[in-house]
């Protein structure tokens, strides 16, 4: 190798940096947020890996900007496929073709937020427990039992894959609030209500 040329490792590192791509988060009114997303056929494909990287980079930038956020769905960055990236303190995963396979018998009320309308909170009703299955980037099938905030989070993200938003599911009296106003009148822990038996 001639002096001055890059070896493959260096090239890879430069390409990876060049790819670092925080994309624009699509905002309420953008029709792509209303699309029913297509299942991923090959979870191990390079295209899915790149999408996952873009979701991660976009989420990290958005978290800093808005001081919130634990997940992002592919349609929110303009890719109408069934992929969700979750990155909470303890847990991170790229979920391909995620599905909720079961829910428990209790619901809870949540003041939900969304990067696609970051100034608005909507009170929604969610299942308190859920069983989730998805495929990871290695093509491995994963199942998880979710409770409370994680259950609510994944219900929110999976709704995105079907073009459903929190604003479609307002619950109770006065279910919308600008975040800044809500914060004047509530404590952070009031975002999540207690579990209670499902009303049928
Ligand atoms: Zn959202």
Using DSSP, what is the number of strands?
Answer: 9
Please state the second-level CATH architecture. Alpha-Beta Complex
> Which structural class do the helices and strands define?
alpha+beta
Strand ordering within the main sheet:
1-2-3-6-7
Shape: globular
What is the CATH T-level topology? Peptide Deformylase
Biggest pleated-sheet summary: 5 strands, antiparallel
Q: Which CATH first-tier class would you pick? A: Alpha Beta
Small ligands present: zinc ion
Pattern of helices and strands: HHEEEEEEEHEHE
User: Please, what is the average pLDDT?
Assistant: 92
Radius of gyration: 19 Å
Helix coverage percent? 25-40%
**Fourth-tier CATH superfamily name:** Peptide deformylase
Supply the number of structural domains: 1
List key phrases describing it.
200 residues, alpha+beta, Peptide Deformylase, 5-stranded antiparallel sheet, 4-stranded antiparallel sheet, 4 helices, 27% strand, binds zinc ion
